[in-house]
Design brief:
The structure is a homotetramer. Chain A is an alpha/beta fold and about 250 residues long. Chain A has helices at about 30-45, 95-115, 145-150, 170-175, 195-210, 220-245, and strands at about 5-10, 20-25, 45-55, 60, 70, 75-80, 85-90, 120-125, 135-140, 165, 180-190. Chain A has an eight-stranded mixed β-sheet, with helices on both faces. The two termini of chain A are about 30 Å apart. In chain A, about 55% of the residues are buried. The interface of A and D includes residues 162, 183 and 195 of A. Chains A, B, C, D: InterPro entries: MJ1210-like, Proteasome_assmbl_chaperone_2, PSMG2_sf. Chains A, B, C, D: This is Proteasome assembly chaperone family protein.
Amino acid sequence: MKDITIDFFEENPEDNRCDIMIEGLPGVGQVGKLVAEHLIEELGAEKVAEIQSVFFPPQVIIDETGVAHMPNNEIFRYSGKDLNILFLTGDFQSSSPEGHYLMTDAYLDIAEKYGVKRIYTLGGYGVGHLIDEIRVLAAVNSDTLKDEVEKAGAVFAKEEPGGGIIGASGLLLGLGVRREIEGICLMGETSGYLVDPKSSASVLEVLSKLTGIEVDPTKLVERADEMEVFVERLKAMDQQKSDEELSYIG
Amino acid sequence: MKDITIDFFEENPEDNRCDIMIEGLPGVGQVGKLVAEHLIEELGAEKVAEIQSVFFPPQVIIDETGVAHMPNNEIFRYSGKDLNILFLTGDFQSSSPEGHYLMTDAYLDIAEKYGVKRIYTLGGYGVGHLIDEIRVLAAVNSDTLKDEVEKAGAVFAKEEPGGGIIGASGLLLGLGVRREIEGICLMGETSGYLVDPKSSASVLEVLSKLTGIEVDPTKLVERADEMEVFVERLKAMDQQKSDEELSYIG
Amino acid sequence: MKDITIDFFEENPEDNRCDIMIEGLPGVGQVGKLVAEHLIEELGAEKVAEIQSVFFPPQVIIDETGVAHMPNNEIFRYSGKDLNILFLTGDFQSSSPEGHYLMTDAYLDIAEKYGVKRIYTLGGYGVGHLIDEIRVLAAVNSDTLKDEVEKAGAVFAKEEPGGGIIGASGLLLGLGVRREIEGICLMGETSGYLVDPKSSASVLEVLSKLTGIEVDPTKLVERADEMEVFVERLKAMDQQKSDEELSYIG
Amino acid sequence: MKDITIDFFEENPEDNRCDIMIEGLPGVGQVGKLVAEHLIEELGAEKVAEIQSVFFPPQVIIDETGVAHMPNNEIFRYSGKDLNILFLTGDFQSSSPEGHYLMTDAYLDIAEKYGVKRIYTLGGYGVGHLIDEIRVLAAVNSDTLKDEVEKAGAVFAKEEPGGGIIGASGLLLGLGVRREIEGICLMGETSGYLVDPKSSASVLEVLSKLTGIEVDPTKLVERADEMEVFVERLKAMDQQKSDEELSYIG
């Protein structure tokens, strides 16, 4: 069993060149994941690969019909008129520090295979209280990218995001440098308590200006509600897990 | 020293074809382990393999006569008139996330060696309070299995088991897909506080309908009492362990 | 850098056959370590090997003159009239579960190299309160050893040591089986709060009857006092470590 | 992806012989890091290598302009009239125990490549309260070094540093022995609460006497203030991280 397994659902993926990758894995307020899933559904992107790993939590996920599937991160591909896009979203980030590095490396292998030259990583920036005016904070992996990002409405705030970005959203930028892949991280301010469609709408707006992708944001709220149900079910499972650890042998 | 060591006690295990595997490793309320051990003893199944691993907690287990043995998971085999069965039970689940994946992979290697086409994984679903009517919750790794499971009396509850199943009971389903092994998980509701023979009886009832195996459930209560003594001894050991960690050097 | 490094200080160690190994690594009340170090000094055993490992805590130990040395476990050898003995003692047990398995495997490699046929593992059994009559609890890895151990004054108590023995003292017994090395674990009851020379004296008494080794126990108290000073210094270091973790970057 | 990646920025580094290495990685009160960075800037040392690793925390660091870079430890080189010096400083220590060993081994590989014969490791010794007279505590990896160190004003205190030194500052001494590299650790007493320029000044004074390097200490206070801002930003990020862990899936 390999530490990370990637299954491609299309032959010769390297023949389907993509310009950019958009990452929206789970995180604060599910802001990034919500934007990525919204785009995938609105654009009708197609699933082209699945990623499984021993670095995920050791569990299966049960869908609402009772069918179990392995935790997956997924790659979707969309061919537009002006832009071909790879999406990275899924169930989990790595559950170990080293796994974060190795999985990000695998994501970059996929990006390179498709010829991606720029990655947008999307996330939330938790502020711990409700917000009226949602700012979209940004970080880049080359200062040549700053102008473009600021013009699209994102903010480089001197004291935020506090010195670092944890997980895939950060490491894709950092490890991308060595592969000459541009990286832009967009973080929507969020209370962090619930799946946050308003923060996602703000991130989507900046992303649209940067990429030219235009989609109707209406269904973000609906999708956030569905996601919230799922998140609540997973929290219940975590409670179950704690019980289980109390009785791990018999 | 290998990470996982499997010792077979029969030659050419691949010649002893089995139709199904029944897994009952330690977990909430010891529900699955109790059912598996009950079946093994009532049917007179024979031990055919032992599994040791560095992914187990770093300790030996002392039996009541003072003899130490390594933590083992064990494979038993039973040849019935209509059905040949492999049982998986034992002392521990993995103590690390990655170990859960690698050990489940090893369990599936064993299942494949014996030609197993379907795995039943058994466990408890902790609800944190006493229950009058015990439901048996189910999950499957293919929706073609649902009808059969529901007819046997198990329930696919939309909001339970909360989105996931942790450990071998879940991963056997998930990782079984790739090997084309059907997987059905049966979880008896339990308070989770004590070894629970009532929950086990409910799971056994559903399992009997699904497999045609019929055994007298009378001794479940007696076996639960014995298991409870062992569980209490292990809790005492955990207390000892905590003391030990406070003085790990001298 | 290897995970475990063993340096021998004598050529052809396999030519210096030993009958038994006595293990006294750090643990509850330092009971085992104190017995082992006492025997090493009273008998004048000679250091023949050092073991270093990445599984130890990531630190050096500073002696009272200010000189740093790597954490070591050590092998001493003593050639008596009737009995040749290998001692295993040292600074630490493994800091990770898997490391416990791999280091115990390395200890057994050393034992086999010297032809050891039996291992005594020594430790404390913490009861959490002061004790008048100290019992020495025992476990063995073959029931053929029980008579001999009981005659020497140790007790096989049905409910103690609570179902398991954690760390090298347990795993040497468990993993020794596969190599056909007899294993006897002797655990002196102790409050567990301080280095406990009384508990060590009780263990030593049983061990003397089992092995025929006779040493004057007088200096056990003195050695316990010295060890206590060292233990206190290490506790102070742990406090320092906690502070350090609060400021791991700058 | 390798566990540890070292990029050299000069060709044939082994041709640029250095006499000593000075290590100042993050730690209590940032005392060591502050001294190392101060020396690097005052002497105008040149960056000659960067070290990245999966053993670092899984994140990028955002500078104040919004540009992300991977966590780096860095090697600087200074060629003086009488002394050629290698400096080791950077963003993090290892986040896992085994990583501490493997990274220290990599640092020593670099030191050997440059022909280094002696390493000074610098750090703080947290006492938990404000101090009037700051002592510089010392440890060495050979007692032949003690006289020299005491003459320079450092103290070998019998009960401090409490029996051990954790992390690279300790392991460089311990693992250096096998490579015949002398090791001297200097620890300035500090409250441990803030970046501490006074403690750093005391360490610098002893180091200057030992090495003959003389630099103006005036800017230590200014640099400490800058470092404190960065430390505070990272603390804010840690808070963010805690929030993130509460919502790792969606």
